[in-house]
Inverse folding.
């Protein structure tokens, strides 16, 4: 097996693992010099109620690896829905990890962070060597459930259940809505050309009787048949009502499968025809898409044509047509 195909297989496996929706945690401990260390992890799992055990997997490439696997204890902080910035900070090499985040020592000594949905302060029960990771099993010495809603993570993006519900409810309540796509392949976006030469997002009507109601199969099938290629709908990028008859529009991020689409032209994400788009809302939407794609961190817009809110999370609807 060549190196390239080994890398490809790893990437495919990582993507498949990414289909499992998880929460997001920050694993923390104190180093020998009492300095707090911590990093973002979504490999947390509850293990046992009696005795109370949990587990998390630590990459051997992590700078925290040696310290965390040898520490007497560690804490798992379950991030709340509004703590995406904390997740990002503890996942990159940011010296501000603990200065920009309030924390205090938990009852067993490991740092517990402010504002989390729940935390578990553990003693080290067992460390199991497992390939390029180690599985760390902790015995819960103390914990606190703050009853907040957790931050979700799937396919490389954050989401919150509240937003997903909002979008799904909006789609379920509408007899028909328009599904638009920011359809991407190889860092290019597919745009449709309208009769006046302006560009627009590919879009098509989806009817509730076709099984819409928040199920991704209906919009995925409709978009796939419109474009003549398989599509994978990702997170919802925008949900808005337009002025014409208060019609509901749901715009999905979407990956295009193999083959030449039946319509449209490809443009590089960083060179979209922003001055030749059909309307200002499409320009705003695509400008936001390009900016967010550059940092690989997407938000969802909820509102109408004129105004609304950009929420720091995404609703998840995924299906291959
Ligand atoms: C959502 C998310 C989940 C992650 N899950 C894990 C994990 O379970 N285990 C792990 O070792 N790294 C995980 N990482 C990667 C680490 O957070 C990242 O490599 C971090 O920089 C390690 O910090 P360190 O090198 O200072 O220890 C995750 C990153 C993100 C964004």
């Amino acid at each position: 097996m060549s190196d390239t195909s080994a890398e490809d297989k790893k990437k495919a496996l990582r993507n498949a693992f990414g289909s499992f929706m998880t929460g997001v945690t920050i694993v923390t401990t104190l180093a020998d010099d009492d300095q707090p260390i911590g990093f973002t992890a979504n490999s947390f799992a509850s293990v046992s109620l009696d005795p109370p055990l949990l587990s998390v997997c630590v990459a051997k490439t992590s700078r925290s690896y040696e310290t965390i696997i040898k520490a007497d204890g560690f804490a798992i902080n379950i991030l709340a829905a509004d703590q995406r910035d904390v997740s990002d900070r503890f996942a990159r090499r940011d010296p501000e990890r603990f200065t920009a985040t309030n924390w205090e020592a938990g009852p067993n000594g490991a740092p517990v962070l402010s504002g989390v949905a729940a935390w578990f302060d553990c003693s080290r029960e067992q460390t199991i060597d497992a390939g390029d990771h180690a599985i760390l099993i902790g015995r819960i010495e103390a914990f606190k459930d703050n009853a907040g809603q957790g931050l979700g993570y799937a396919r490389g993006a954050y989401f919150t259940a509240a937003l997903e519900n909002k979008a799904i409810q909006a789609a379920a309540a509408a007899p028909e809505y328009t599904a638009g796509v920011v359809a991407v392949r190889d860092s290019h976006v597919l745009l449709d050309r309208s009769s006046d030469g302006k560009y627009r997002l590919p879009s098509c009507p989806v009817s509730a009787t076709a099984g819409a109601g928040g199920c991704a199969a209906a919009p995925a099938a409709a978009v796939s048949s419109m474009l003549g290629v398989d599509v994978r709908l990702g997170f919802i990028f925008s949900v808005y009502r337009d002025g014409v008859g208060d019609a509901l529009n749901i715009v999905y991020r979407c990956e295009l499968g193999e083959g030449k689409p039946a319509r449209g032209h490809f443009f590089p994400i960083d060179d979209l025809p922003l001055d030749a788009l059909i309307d200002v809302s499409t320009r705003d939407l695509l400008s936001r898409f390009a900016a967010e794609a550059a940092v690989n961190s997407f938000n969802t817009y909820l509102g109408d044509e004129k105004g609304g809110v950009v929420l720091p999370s995404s609703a998840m609807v995924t299906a291959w047509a």
Summary: The CA atoms of residues 14 and 284 lie 32 Å apart.
